Structure to design on (906 residues):
């Protein structure tokens, strides 16, 4: 039994089912990401783990103990909130030690814990300030300090970086990763940002509509997305999807034959007949002399690479190519890709075929 | 008093004197009683202090529950209480006077205190609830995770953040209860009349010569406590009240 | 899990501490809620029952149906009270809002003493209606106040006897009421004005609108919710108004300035007509409820 196990958790509010049966096992020390669009139920699930909400049915075990209906304080967990939720009336030291005080930890131990955490997060000089006097990044650190001071068995993060500006977000992301590596505390981290999900997680649970669409390592999720939703949600720019018809040679769209390898052909013939979604990540596309003809309609240079929107017979495709592009808008180009980079999905079930 | 009768509305008194104030305080006649406004004023003080404190404390706790500890039906309960803010109090006068009689506190200051506390509860609850709705729920959640319970969250987190709304509620309740006339005239007895009733009786007592200067001095005395509160704390009151009132 | 296989998902037992924690808020709320509930709805029902009884000097629970209401609406005095409420309410709300809005717009012109004025305008709110009434009674007194002032200034023909003129006395109540509430209305409108997004005004200026036009076409329409809540506050103040009338005219001359609130008080507590008083209170309640309940309903709906 793992550090956290969630079994068939369902939650409905007034007849509307927000969570439709969630099963997750998290190993000790693991960093699990819950990612998905807003309304997918990820925050509800986190609240259920924290004990701020209770499942309608199903159970939650933390470190082997059934805590489904236990109070948050009896779960030995700590949580970092999106808004940080620092107590405005207490100074930083007070914020960090409040949880220990509530657990009747003696004063000298509380002070030692505050010092230890402050040192770890480099906020020693802020201990006497009130949260109102801190910058966004400092508040974020204090919020993490408050969680760390308690030395819990489980860390919960609820979109902790979404109130920070872009540069600070990248810094704090790295810092969270380092802290986790150092402390090795089991962590559940909710985000809607797929970059955070990919960079931080040992495993990622992609959620949609109250269900987990796919649970796997970042590589699994990116290289073998289980559903069309996962394929389009993870990765930026999003995966190109071409609606393809069966043809004698395999698959074709608008009369253009689409390349496939043997494994994909086998999967296709094993699957149900009918149209198929033919997915290509933008970085799988490259410009060549021969291939799918099209015209460039827009260029978005980002510096190290360029996104090119190409109008082709099978639809508009985005290509992500390194460096700068010298084609002009309206220039004719040809797109190439290899069959190994293709993702196939059933149009009806939206499940992965190959 | 001659100044007022001789002079006009705008002319300054020719020889300012505090005689009228003294008369209004301790010797002006209301009906057959000639003890001035003093006993009524003291009644008001004795009534207003417990009534304001109790209704404010209960309102704070109720508002805390209605905003941060919602449960099934709590919104309906709040809406039901809200109607009490607008209800014309004439509806409760007749039954309430009978209840106070049964409780044995009719015509006493304690009867007035009880009525003011209950009648003020909807407003104080509304004030605190609307203010607490603006406090992030995450604060309470974080405190729950930190191991604090219902009372400790209230005491250590919520109450220290409540100063603005507490000032508004205290001033609001103080003004309302001090200035109340309806309950005062209906529920008080000869020895428990509040200052508004005293002032009204004084001003409406017909004597041979109407002493308007004494009436005015009495009106000033009756108005003084609330005016002082407004002058001292009016700024905070305006800020808090208008913010809340516009939000709804 | 293998143990639970085949059975429905077992509901985990709730620990005692958690169950207790769930009940604490309800237990704490219960006493004051019950008290308030009984006070509001219990007494409302009781009053309703009294209004259907034959009570006169003492409560008497002999059921007489709507007889008291029939008497009420046959009473000339009640109709005077209702008419007065109409006149008073209409003018009080209309003048109060107009003056309050104008004051707010004036103060909104970023004048230097705004902070001071804003607070001073509110001072009347600190006063009891009894104090206001007593003061205005003196100012409006024909022998002492405005009239005497005008005479001394040489306007011998000036006569201002509204206070003792049965056809005019109700307007003196309007004057005093507006004086007292205008500052409060101003504060509400001023807060509303301050809540308007500055960029809207800048956009209008760039579009070339003049200041009066900006107020008329953009700002005042934006204040609609404030108008609405002010209307609510003022109309329920008007219906409940009792103290001001008692202090200024005590319903007189005769019963020329009676309003429902003073009518109710007179019937219930000095004329020994408890049933009739209860009936008039019920009518007042129904009037307020007709205004306030839809408002509360929409407010609570909208907030969710």
């Amino acid at each position: 039994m793992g550090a956290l196990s969630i079994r068939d958790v369902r939650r409905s509010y007034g007849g509307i089912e927000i969570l439709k049966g969630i099963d997750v096992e998290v190993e000790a020390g693991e960093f699990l990401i819950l990612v998905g669009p807003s309304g997918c139920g990820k925050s509800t699930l986190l609240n259920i783990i924290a004990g701020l909400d209770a499942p309608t049915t199903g159970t939650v075990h933390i470190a082997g103990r059934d805590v489904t209906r236990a109070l948050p304080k009896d779960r030995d967990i700590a949580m970092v909130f999106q808004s940080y939720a620092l107590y405005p009336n207490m100074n930083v030291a007070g914020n960090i030690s409040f949880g220990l005080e509530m657990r009747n930890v003696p004063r000298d131990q509380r002070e030692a814990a505050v010092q230890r955490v402050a040192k770890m997060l480099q906020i020693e000089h802020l201990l006497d300030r009130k949260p109102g006097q801190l910058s966004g990044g400092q508040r974020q650190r204090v919020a993490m300090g408050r969680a760390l001071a308690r030395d819990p068995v489980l860390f919960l993060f609820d979109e902790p970086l979404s109130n920070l500006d872009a540069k600070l977000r990248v810094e704090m992301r790295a810092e969270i990763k380092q802290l986790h590596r150092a402390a090795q505390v089991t962590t559940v981290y909710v985000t809607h940002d797929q970059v955070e999900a990919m960079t931080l997680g040992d495993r990622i649970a992609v959620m949609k509509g109250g269900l987990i669409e796919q649970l796997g390592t970042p590589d699994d999720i990116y290289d073998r997305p289980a559903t069309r939703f996962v394929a389009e949600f993870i990765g930026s720019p999003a995966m190109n999807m071409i609606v393809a018809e069966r043809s004698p040679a395999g698959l074709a769209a608008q009369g253009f034959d689409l390349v496939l390898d043997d494994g994909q052909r086998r999967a296709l013939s094993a699957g149900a007949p009918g149209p198929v979604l033919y997915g290509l990540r933008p970085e799988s596309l490259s410009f060549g002399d021969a291939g799918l003809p099209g015209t460039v309609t827009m260029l978005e240079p980002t510096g190290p690479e360029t996104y090119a929107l190409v109008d082709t017979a099978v639809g508009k495709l985005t290509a992500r190519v390194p460096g700068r592009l010298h084609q002009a808008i309206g220039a004719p180009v040809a797109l190439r890709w290899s069959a190994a980079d293709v993702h196939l999905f059933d149009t009806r079930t939206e499940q992965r075929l190959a | 008093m001659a100044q007022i009768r001789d002079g006009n509305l705008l002319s300054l008194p020719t020889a300012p004197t505090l005689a009228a104030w003294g008369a209004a305080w301790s010797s002006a006649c209301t009906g057959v009683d000639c003890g001035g406004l003093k006993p009524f004023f003291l009644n008001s003080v004795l009534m207003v202090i417990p009534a304001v404190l109790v209704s404010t404390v209960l309102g704070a706790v109720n508002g805390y529950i209605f905003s941060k500890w919602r449960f099934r039906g709590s919104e309906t309960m709040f809406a039901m209480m809200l109607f009490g803010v607008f209800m014309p109090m004439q509806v409760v006068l007749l039954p309430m006077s009978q209840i106070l009689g049964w409780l044995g506190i009719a015509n006493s200051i304690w009867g007035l205190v009880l009525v003011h506390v209950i009648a003020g509860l909807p407003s104080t609850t509304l004030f605190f609830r609307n203010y607490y709705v603006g406090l992030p729920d995450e604060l309470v959640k974080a405190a729950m995770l930190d191991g604090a319970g219902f009372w400790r969250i209230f005491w250590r987190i919520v109450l220290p953040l409540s100063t603005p709304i507490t000032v508004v509620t205290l001033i609001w309740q103080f003004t309302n209860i001090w200035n109340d006339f309806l309950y005062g005239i209906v529920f008080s007895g000869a020895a428990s009349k509040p200052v508004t009733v005293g002032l009204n009786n004084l001003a409406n007592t017909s004597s041979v010569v109407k002493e308007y200067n004494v009436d005015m001095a009495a009106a000033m005395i009756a108005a003084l406590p609330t005016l002082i509160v407004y002058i001292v704390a009016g700024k905070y009151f305006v800020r808090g009240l208008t913010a809340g009132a516009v939000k709804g | 899990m293998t143990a639970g296989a085949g059975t429905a998902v077992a509901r985990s037992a709730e620990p005692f501490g958690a169950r207790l924690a769930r009940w604490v808020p309800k237990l704490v709320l219960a006493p004051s809620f019950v008290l308030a509930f009984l006070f509001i709805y219990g007494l409302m029902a009781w009053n309703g029952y009294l209004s259907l009884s034959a009570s006169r000097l003492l409560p008497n629970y002999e059921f007489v149906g709507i007889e008291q209401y029939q008497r009420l609406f046959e009473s000339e005095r009640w109709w005077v009270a209702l008419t007065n409420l109409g006149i008073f309410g209409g003018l009080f709300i209309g003048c109060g809002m107009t003056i309050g809005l104008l004051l707010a717009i004036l103060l909104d012109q970023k004048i230097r003493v705004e902070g001071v004025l804003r607070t001073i305008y509110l001072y009347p709110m600190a006063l009891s209606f009894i104090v206001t009434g007593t003061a205005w009674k003196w100012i409006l007194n024909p022998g002492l106040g405005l009239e005497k002032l005008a005479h001394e200034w040489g306007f011998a023909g000036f006569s201002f006897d509204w206070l003792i003129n049965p056809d005019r006395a109700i307007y003196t109540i309007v004057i005093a009421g507006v004086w007292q509430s205008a500052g409060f209305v101003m504060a509400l409108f001023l807060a509303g004005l301050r809540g308007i997004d500055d960029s809207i005004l800048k956009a209008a200026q760039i579009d070339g609108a003049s200041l009066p036009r900006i107020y008329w076409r953009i700002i005042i329409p934006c204040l609609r919710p404030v108008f609405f809540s002010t209307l609510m506050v003022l109309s329920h103040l008007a219906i409940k108004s009792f103290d001001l009338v008692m202090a200024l005219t005590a319903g007189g001359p005769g019963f020329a300035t009676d309003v429902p609130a003073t009518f109710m008080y007179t019937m219930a507590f000095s004329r020994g007509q408890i049933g009739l008083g209860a009936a008039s209170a019920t009518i007042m309640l129904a009037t307020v409820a007709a205004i306030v309940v839809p408002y509360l309903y929409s407010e609570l709906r909208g907030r969710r």
In short: Residues 296 and 328 of chain A are 7 Å apart (CA to CA). The two ends of chain A are 33 Å apart (CA to CA).
